[in-house]
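Notes from hallway chat w/ T.B., transcribed later so I don't forget. T.B. wanted the structure written out for a chain they're using in a teaching module, and asked if we could keep both sequence and structure tokens in one place. Agreed to drop them here.
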Amino acid sequence: MDYCTDDGRNLIQEWYAAQDDAVKVAFDATLFTLAATEDWEAASVQEFKVLTERHAGLGEIRFDVEAKEPGWKKPRKRRFRPVGIWHPGEREFILLLGCEKSGRIYTPLNAFDLALEYKAQFEQGRGTIREHA
């Protein structure tokens, strides 16, 4: 599912639209894999991670894309971590927004804190959810 803000913005779709084809394909394939996976929290599932501590209640979808930068001899790994609302034991994940991880830095910088704000809004009945397309 996708979360849409009070003003109708679908942040995950906005993020998706801004990505290149390789990222879109990898994201779609990862969602397809997870949709066919019974237990996302199993140790063998590398495509999902439950967030803890101050980001409890959230989870991140995990996938990587090899990118060849102009002038670079070797491709570099781009790591993506779209984040959403996770309710353990339920078969529903609500995508909030997309982000990219480089070392310990996320783009946007405050992605998980923003996700917590959107989660709080959703829990207050603000915004809507819709089927992810």
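Follow-up for T.B.: The chain has a mean pLDDT of 91. Might be a good example for the class.
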